[in-house]
Each structure stands twice: as C-alpha cells, then as structure tokens.
Specification:
73 residues; 5% strand; 2 strands; mainly alpha
C-alpha cells in the first residue's frame, strides 16, 4: 500500500512537471526546483516525511525567502 501511494504521488509530480510546468513562467526561487525537490524527498524519505518536506519547501518559495541552493537532506 505504501509503495502504491508513493508511486502515485511521484506520478502526480511527474504529470505536473510534464503537463503544467511548461505552460507556466519559471518562478521557483530554489535549486532544485520545488517539484524536483518534492520528488527527491519522497524517493529518499518515503511518502509522509517527503510530503512534509515538500510542503515546507513550497511554503518557503515566496518573495519573503531568499531562495538559492536547497538540497534534500
């Protein structure tokens, strides 16, 4: 079950990156991009912790934060 949910979450991120992201102007303040970070976090830490890390990153991707290099730890 956990593997199926993890695979589904990665598929949603992949679909966003292939279908939606090319239609939007570049806006992410970080490297790697927020979607890439989310996928790496889920792959490295599993679904629940990966989603928490991705949500935290998305909340920081705004003009109040500096941005820059922010790898998955």
């Amino acid at each position: 079950m956990a593997t199926a949910a993890r695979t589904a979450a990665l598929a949603v991120i992949g679909a966003y990156r292939r279908l939606v992201s090319p239609l939007l102007p570049p806006a992410c303040r970080f490297f790697p991009s927020c979607s890439e970070y989310g996928a790496m976090a889920i792959e490295r830490h599993g679904l629940l912790r990966g989603l928490r890390l991705a949500a935290s990153r998305l909340l920081r991707c705004n003009p109040l934060f500096r941005g820059g290099y922010d790898p998955v730890r």
